Amino acid sequence: MEHGESITSLVIVVIAAFLTPILLHRFRLKMIPVVVAEIIIGLIIGETGFKLVEESSWLETLSTLGFIFLMFLSGLEIDFSLFSRKKRGKQTENKMPNPVKLATLIFVAILILSFGLSYLFVLLGFIDNVFLMTLIISTISLGVVVPTLKEAQAMQTTIGQTILLIAVIADLATMILLAVFVSFYGDSSGNMWLLLILFGVGVLLYFVGKYFRNQSFLEAMSKGTIQIGTRAVFTLIIFLVALSETVGAENILGAFLAGALVSLLAPNQDLVQKLDSFGYGFLIPIFFVMVGVELDLWALFEEPKVLILIPLLFLALLVSKVIPVAILKKWYDTKTVVAASMLLTSTLSLVIAAATIGERLGVITSEMNGALVLVAVLSCIITPPFFKKYFVNQEEVEHSDSIAFIGINQATIPVVRELNPDEFEVHLFHTRQDKIEDKHTRSIFDINQLDNYDIATLKNAGVFDHDIVVVSTGEEEKNEEIATYAKNNDVGRVIARIETPVIEKRLQEIGVDVFSVLLSSKTLLKALIEAPNVVNIFTQQESALYEILMNNTQYEGILLREFPFTGDVIMVRIFRGKDSIVPHGDTELRVGDRLIVTGSQEYVGDLQRLLEYV
């Protein structure tokens, strides 16, 4: 009989999770995040509503796995490249400081202010533990911030990147501080040093993963029934979760660390999509529905103290973000700053984690747990719509890439003259002793004259602060030296002129793009002889290749065979992150995709307007 009851409850929860996004779409409730809607549905079918769901070992297990997988995906969402991005080459009078330093400063201010507010809650008798309340007030939901920024087309803007960095740092710091909290107040209190074992193993696994990541045999094992990448990820999650519990930390810390490790290893986007599909398609919805199921709002209303706590805590969440984020007023208008602080007020998964752990450790009551979860849900319902309504993208409209040319000669001059100034901000670097014969180039572009091409000289000239560096001096060895240094110092793209195959191979192995004047000429002549029609694609305007950035969220996830565009355009290739995808009918479009297409200029222009602008 018990078995039947548990299956029945599982079926009800799964059906509820399935119907939630359909109902949101049907009633056009786009302002409510799906995870919040799942909690609300849980309230309706659970203790607060019709009490259709009973206790079940099935649901308990799947809900725990959903929570673990949610923490894993939270770690996976962290883009560590944000911490190493260079400043753009273009300077402004009122330039912003380093975004990482600015985001860190803002989060430290949030943490300090959260501590002060938490101390007030302790003095008022709402809670006894100031450390736990500090964590709860200072948390920011990365899972809410990321999709909201994407929907507002703000992800690639400076303010969007700053908001994202603050959320990332908050996610990392509060998760680590939560582990420290458990080490002090848990059953294994006093063994905080054991956390070093967990992080040490994490570092070791990172280097192991980095070594095996590019092994050729793994590519063959990543398809079919083997799916070695997926197996490796789940093995990593389970191993670190088990190790986390062994050293006295929470299992979610191990899961979060596993996600961060996978993110550091720059996983294949197809693998990330599979993990997202599995997590947000099955396990995570069960967890959020069960959060609502177990939340008894009627019990909260019977406790006057808890009822008073709810608006006060929401106010504390707002104050803790609005005041520190006000520093951005130096660079942005008031409406933008307020909208940013409102979005950073959203908090969910880590509050649920902290509240659950606090109740289990006896630091807070079940009613307090429910109040904290309810405030987290309210923050996710109220703040994202506010951000979307009041955020106006007044960013620097020019999204031009800053490109530095080292060496001005017959190989680079024609390219420099042809580059679209609206798309590329060109900076030329040349030695004083080398004369530039092209007077037209010399008159149009401001050329930075250098004494030599030594690394120190180039560094002082700010060459490596640009998005793209093209190295084309007259010496191959010097080109290799400069290109290697640029790549090792986080320049986004490095292109070098190399004629020797051995040097070419060395540079390609570290991710440097290589071009050869001799090889280009030879290849073009051979192609003209063997396949002239192929060459026409590159040389004739009507059949040229074009690159289009997919930036319209309306077509996010749509299959190519269902794409409503019938113009004379053929999609040749899709670049997604580091992956190159051959498009077919079942290929999904994703925001951020770079589409390589061919066709008439008229239809390519129509497609560009359709995809790049909302």
From TrEMBL:
Question: Any keyword Transport?
Answer: yes
Highest taxon of the lineage:
Bacteria
Signal peptide start-end: none
**Residues spanning the membrane:** 6-24, 31-50, 62-82, 102-124, 130-150, 162-186, 192-212, 249-266, 278-301, 307-328, 337-358, 370-387
- State its location(s): Membrane
Q: Keyword set for this entry?
A: Antiport, Ion transport, Membrane, Transmembrane, Transmembrane helix, Transport
Note the Pfam families from the entry. Na_H_Exchanger (PF00999), TrkA_C (PF02080), TrkA_N (PF02254)
Q: How does the protein's chain sit in the membrane according to the entry?
A: Multi-pass membrane protein
- Ranges for domain RCK C-terminal: 532-613
* PANTHER family with a match to the protein in the record: NA(+)_H(+) ANTIPORTER YJBQ-RELATED, NAPA-TYPE SODIUM/HYDROGEN ANTIPORTER
Question: Which family is it part of?
Answer: Belongs to the monovalent cation:proton antiporter 2 (CPA2) transporter (TC 2.A.37) family.
Q: What is this protein called?
A: Monovalent cation:proton antiporter family protein
Species whose genome carries this gene:
Gracilibacillus xinjiangensis
